[in-house]
Amino acid sequence: MSPTVFRYKNYAFFFFSREEKRIHVHARSSAGEAKFWMEPRVALCRNYGFSAKEVKELQRVIEGHHDEIIAAWKKHFRS
Question: What CA–CA distances, in Å, run from 58 to 21, 43, 50, 52, 75?
Answer without folding.
Answer: 22, 10, 10, 10, 23
